[in-house]
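Can't paste images in this forum, so I'm doing it all in text. The chain is below; anyone willing to post the predicted structure tokens underneath?
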Amino acid sequence: MTTFAQAPEKEARRLRWLPLIAAIAAVTTATPLAWDSKNFGTFLLVISVYLPAVALVSLGLCIWAGVERKSPRARPIVLSLVVMLALIGGTFWAVPSAKDELRFLIWSLTHNDALGAFADRDSVVLDWESWGMAGMENDAYLVSNPSDNLAQDGGASEWLRHVGSSCEIVASKRMRRGVFIVTTHNCPLR
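Text version of the structure:
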């Protein structure tokens, strides 16, 4: 009789790793999709495959937790569901906002000489990223602005005049002193 009474407790100890496994699976599957979230193909993959798979796994965990609701095994199952959903949401929120900073940090460590070559003049250093569909393209560029005033009022128009472009800058993000990522809409700078 003691082995039968210990079986649920042993099974509950075995399931204590389930939240960790759910966390690892959530982060490793969501990070690449969140990293490339501006791509239309990635958007279609997320909508048509990833979100239905997450919903199916969530439904399975809910049913499993409902079946085990009076057992000590229900707690790690419910915790796994909460951890998985929270980490997927957090990943899709955090990764796109930190992506440019991480890419710039790695790029600048390996291309410091390129940044030095553009440090003394207003110019486009390189094409950074583009996304959108025909007629609605967005282009982002890594640019040099030695006066470091691109994000200030009037700074963008002055910088555009110096590089000889009539495009409108719809967004700018400062990476470090004198280096920005600027985004244009339907107007390539090069």
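The longest strand covers residues 123-131. The helical segments are 2-14, 18-35, 40-67, 74-110, 112-117, 155-163.
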